[in-house]
Write a structure and sequence with these properties.
about 110 residues; alpha+beta; 3-stranded antiparallel β-sheet
Length: about 110
């Protein structure tokens, strides 16, 4: 089974190109650019950071029970929960279909 998504060209005033349309979080491309920048700053000793990788347990079996049509709704709800927990100076992103990443800036050394 393969899912194909067709999208219209982005109209003026629509979501920015660095935002995932389903979740409203940063998309993978934007996250990777920000990660490169943050790693360079950390390598120069200008900041501390942490990287969090989140993937729901048993996603495939959940997907089978709710149907692929509800997968976007599930990921949108998960993104909202994540958004509430991530500090303002950190970056949360939808990294793949069912994976989120969080770049935590000024991470404590604990």
């Amino acid at each position: 089974c393969q899912q194909i998504t067709l999208r219209r060209p982005q109209a003026a005033g629509g979501p920015p190109p660095d935002v995932d349309l389903v979740t409203g979080l940063a998309n993978r491309q934007h996250f990777l650019k920000e990660l490169d920048r943050a790693v360079a700053e950390a390598a120069e000793g200008r900041s501390d950071l942490a990287l969090i990788y989140l993937e729901p347990d048993n996603y495939r079996s959940v997907l089978e029970s709710i149907g692929i049509g509800n997968a976007d709704l599930l990921m949108s709800d998960a993104a909202e929960l994540l958004r509430r927990q991530v500090p303002d100076d950190s970056l949360a992103a939808r990294f793949s279909d069912n994976t989120f990443m969080v770049l935590v800036r000024r991470a404590p050394h604990e």
